[in-house]
Amino acid sequence: MPLSSAVALALLLAAPSPATPPTIAAVDPFIGTGGEGHTFPGAVAPFGMVQLSPDTDTGCTIRECYGHAAGYRYDDPTIQGFSHTHFSGAGHSDLGDVLVMPVAGDAVPLEPGDPKVAGSGYRSRFRHAEETARPGYYAVTLDASGIRAEMTAGTRTGVHRYAFPAGKAAHLVLDLRSSLYNYPGKILWSSLRLRPDGTLTGSRQTRGWAPDRQLFFAMRFSAPLKDHAFVSTEKDVTYKGFQGPGRGSEALAEKQGRALVARLDFGTLAAPLEVKVAISSVDEAGAIANLDSEPGDFAATLARTTAAWTEALGRVEIEAAPAMRASVATALYHSLIAPSVAGDVDGRYRGPDNAVHKAEGYDFRSTFSLWDTFRAEHPLLTLVQPEATNSAIVRSLIDSARASPDGILPVWQFHGRETWTMIGYHAVPVIADAYLKGIGGFDAAAALDAMVASARYAPYGGLGDYMKLGYVPIDREPEAASKTVEYAYDDWTIARMAGAMGKADVAADFTKRAGYWRNSFDARTGFVRARKADGAFRTPFDPTAINYGSDYTEGNAWQYSWFVPQDQAGLFRAMGGDRAAIAKLDAMFDYDNSKIDYSHAEDIAGLIGQYIHGNEPSHHVAYLYNHAGAPWRTQARLKQIVESQYKPTPDGLSGNDDLGQMSAWLVFTALGFYPVTPGSLEYAIGRPFVDRASLTLPNGKRFTIVAEGLGEARPYVGAVTLNGRPLPRSVIRHEEIMAGGELRFTMAATPNKSWASAPSARPMSMSGAK
Q: Per-residue pLDDT for 599 more than 80?
C-alpha cells in the first residue's frame, strides 16, 4: 500500500465517527470569563506552566482585583496587554507576569493609560466580534492600532504572533510593573537584560498573595530588534534584597529597579512578528533552557498543543444537546489546566522554602487549591489523567512537604510558594484516594509519613487543641466548627490508607479521630456548631449567619452540618433518622432567603435556599438523599442545580471555578455519578445529563454511560443496569468503572421510589451497616 494511502487509512480509523464529533470542537473558553467564574480565555497547554492570556484591567484596587482574578473580565472594554501567568477560576488574584502589548506607528506610550480615555496609553479597546478562543489558541484585533494579536502556548512557553498594519512601524511594550494584585510595594525588584544573540531575559520578585515569589523569563523574536529603551519609572531604587544577576560582560544592555518598562522597536515588517517567551521560577538560565526545549514557530507550537488537547479531551466522548455538550466539554477543559507544571525542563523548581530543588523523573506541579479540588477535581483526574498527572501530583505534594520549613503538605500553593489560604490538610485525601485506586509512581511510605506529620502539626489551625479536646475550640481558633469536621474527614482518609498499608496503629489512631465530628454536632439544634474550650457551644447561634473569621469557613451551619462524608449514616442517625435528614435537606434547598443579605460575602453565590453551589462546602449535599434511601430526591435536586447554575455563556458559572472544582462537579454529574467521599472507592449515582458518554481508560478499556430516553419530560431514573445486569444500589465502584463496560440509565417521567432505597443499597459510611 502506498505511504499516502496508509496514512489516509490510519487517519480515517483514528477519527471519531460523524455521530461523535471530537470533544475539543465543543469547548468554549469564554465560559466563565464573566460573572463570578474567574476563568481566562487565553492559550494554555494541558497543565501548562504558561497561561498566555489578555489582561483587561490591571489597575484595580485590592477589592476590585477580586473580579479580575484571572486577568480578563468579559464585560471590560479594553485590553491592557497579554501576560503569561494566570489562575483559572481562583477566588483570589495574583500573577499576570511579563505583560506584553504591541503598538503600531511612531508614538509609543509607556503607560497603560485610563481605560475610560481612548489614546491615553498603550491599552486598546476591542470587540468580542473580533475575538476567537479555542483550546491552545486565542486571537483578537486591537481597535486602536488594527493589530491582529494571536496567542498559543506550549508546556513551558507562550508564543505571540502580531500582524501589524502595512507601512506602520512595529513596537512592543514590555511592562514589568503590571500585576493582577496591586498595592504599594507589590513589585520588590525586577531586571532586564538584552543578550548579544538578541534574547531578552529578565526577572521579577513580587510580594502578593504568595509572600516572596521569584519569576524569570527569556524572550526571542522572529525579527531583529532595531532599537530599544529600558526605563525605570521610579526615582528611588535603593533596595538591599534580591536584585537579580549582576551585569555580565555578555549583556548589551541591562536595567534593574522596582518599576521597569521596556520599549522594543522592530521597524516596518513584511511579515507578522512572532515572540516566544519561556518562564522559570529558578533563574534566567532555566528560562532559556525551557525556551530551547520547545522548538518551532507559532504554527508548530499551535499544532503540538492542539494535538495534546485533542487527545486529553478525547478521553471523554460526549453526545448531548448542543448547549449541554458545550458546558460539559468546557468543564472538562477547565479541569485539565491545573495543577500546572512548575518545574523547568531540567527538573529544577523553587520550593516552599524558597530554595531550588530538583525533581527526579517527573515534572514538578503546583497551583494546588486543595480545599476546593480534593472534592471532585482530583478524583476526576484519577479517571481521565491518572498516568499523566497523579503520580506527578502526589510526588510534588510529597517533595513539597520535604522542602517545607514545617515539614507539612501544601495547603494552597502556587509556583511552589505557600499562601496558607483556606483550612484543612486536604492534600491528604488527594494522596489517599490516588493510592487506594492503585495509582503508583510514588513512595507510599513517605506519603503516609507526610500525611501523618501534617495531621499532627499542633501549631496549624488549632490542631493541638483538636488532638487534646477532640474538637477545635472557637475561643482559641476562628472557623472552628468547619475545621473540626474537615480535619475529621481528612483523618479518615489517613486511616484508610494506613489500613491498606498494614499500619494498624496509625489506622486505629486516625479512625478514632475521624469520629471527632460528633464533638461539634449539637443534637438539640441539629447543626454542627462551634464549641468553646470549656465544652459549651458558642452563643448566640444563627445557622444562616456568614461572616469571615467566625464559626465557619465561607459558609454557615446549613452548609457545614452536612460535611461528614465519611459517616453520613452516623450523622443521619444523630439528626433523628432518614426521614429527619430528608426533611432537613429539603428545608435547606427550600429556605426563604428574602430577608437575608449576603452581599458582604463575596464567595457566596449560586444560592438555592441555603444550598450554595458557587462555593464548595455544598457540592456533595444534593447526593446525600442517596444515603437516606431517597435517590429520586437527589435526581430532582441535580436537575434544579444544573439548570440554574451552568450555561454555555460567559456568565455560565455561578461561582469561581476554583481551579477546576466547579467544572469537575459538572463533568461527574453530567455522567451520572459523583465522588461524595474521595477515599471510599465509591461514586454516588445521580442522574445523567448527556445522552451518551464514553471514557477511554488508561488500561485501554472503555466505560460507556447511556441515558435511554433522556429528555425534559423524563428527569428521573427508572432503572439502572451495569453491563446488562440490574444495578440495585445507588453507588458504582471505582473498580467497576476501570473494568470497562456500560452503565445504562432508563429515564422516566416519574420517580422510582423503591430503587436503591434499602440500607444495603446505599453509599458507605464508617459507622453504617452494608
A: no
Running DSSP on this structure, what letter comes out for residue 389?
Answer: I
Rounded Cα–Cα distance for residues 76 and 174 (Å):
22
Show the CA angle centred on residue 142, arms to residues 136 and 143, nearest 5°: 150
Integer-rounded Cα radius of gyration of the chain? 26
Q: Measure the CA–CA gap between 124 and 77, rounded to whole angstroms.
A: 8
Residue 715: cis peptide before it, omega within 30 degrees of 0: no
Q: Which residue has the cell 429527619?
A: 580
Burial class (CB in 10 A: 0-12, 13-18, 19+), 237: middle
Is the pLDDT score of 245 beyond 70?
A: no
pTM: 0.95
d(CA 672, CA 666): 10
Residue with cell 456548631: 529
Distance CA 597, CA 677 (A): 32
Report the alpha-carbon distance of residue 691 to residue 718 in Å, rounded.
15
What's the pLDDT tens digit per position in 387-423?
Answer: 766 789 999 999 999 999 999 999 999 999 999 999 9
| Helix (H/G/I), strand (E/B), else coil: 54 | strand
Under DSSP, the state recorded for 565 is T
CA–CA separation, 523 and 366 (whole Å)? 41
pLDDT at 211: 85
Provide CB contacts within 8 A for 569, sequence distance 6+.
Answer: 627, 762, 765, 767, 768
Instruction: Give the number of residues written for the chain.
Output: 770
28-309 topology per CATH: Beta-galactosidase; Chain A, domain 5 (2.70.98)
**Residue pair 432/489 in contact by the 8 Å Cβ criterion:** no
- The boundaries of every CATH 3.30.2080.10 domain in the chain are 604-770
Place of cell 440554574: 644
DSSP state string for 612-665: ETTSGGGTTGGGGGGGGT-HHHHHHHHHHHHHHHB-SSTT-BSS--TTTHHHHH
As a whole number, mean pLDDT of residues 431-437 equals: 97
Q: Contact at 8 Å (CB) between 704 and 743?
A: yes
SS3 of the chain: helix, strand, coil, percent, to 5: 30, 25, 45
Could you tell me if 633 and 312 are in contact, meaning their C-beta atoms sit under 8 angstroms apart?
no
Under CATH, to which class is 604-770 assigned? alpha beta
Per-residue pLDDT reduced to its tens digit, 438-487:
998 999 999 999 999 999 999 999 999 999 999 999 999 999 999 999 99
Instruction: Give the mean pLDDT of 628-652.
Output: 97
Phi, psi values for residue 391, rounded to 5°:
-65, -40
Within 10 angstroms of residue 590's Cβ, the number of other Cβ atoms is 11
Lowest mean pLDDT of 22-31, 143-152, 173-182, 291-300, name the range. Answer: 173-182
- State the amino acid at position 89 in one-letter form: G
- Which residues in the chain are classed under CATH 2.70.98.10? 28-309
For residue 123, give the nearest of 83, 160, 82, 79 by alpha carbon. Answer: 79
Q: Is pLDDT at 197 greater than 80 in this prediction?
A: yes
Please give the Cα distance from 280 to 293 (Å, whole number).
13
pLDDT at 244 over 70: no
Q: What is the mean pLDDT of the chain?
A: 92
pLDDT, residue 239, reads 40
Pair 567, 515: CB distance under 8 Å:
yes
What average pLDDT does this structure show over 353-357? 96
Gap between the Cα atoms of 638 and 183, Å rounded: 42
- Angle of the 427-436 helix axis to the 377-384 helix axis, nearest 10: 30
At residue 679, φ and ψ (nearest 5 deg) are: 105, -15
> Using CA atoms, how far apart are residues 254 and 244, in angstroms rounded to an integer?
11
Strand partners, 340: 366
Measured CA to CA in angstroms, residue 726 lies from 37, 689, 723, 734, 762 at distances of: 39, 20, 8, 18, 15
